[in-house]
What we know:
The structure is a single chain. By secondary structure, this protein is mainly alpha-helical. Helix content is 82%, strand content 0%. The chain has a domain at 44-99. Helix 1 packs antiparallel against helix 2. The N and C termini lie far apart (51 Å).
Amino acid sequence: MIYRSGKIQFLFWTAFFSVLIYLWLAAVGLQTFVLPDEPPMEFPTHVATLMFILFGLLIITTLAGVVVSMMISNRFYIQFFSGMTIFIFASMIFAKSFFG
């Protein structure tokens, strides 16, 4: 078994959960707002609350990964989390332009 430092393990699990939370957020948004069988009669506040919480967790995990990877100067995770941050904000802009 390969022993990794705690910082590298933290970065790995932070990256894993960042991607997992992003996929969960995208799936909930697509199922609720883009691909429903019929348009909802009223705004689904419980789904909006879930998406707000997931987005908050996503921002926290991504920024924690950026900070820790920069502190230990790990080039792979710096590039990964920086790209993830750009991807998150680009998808926010796309969703804003899509929904108006």
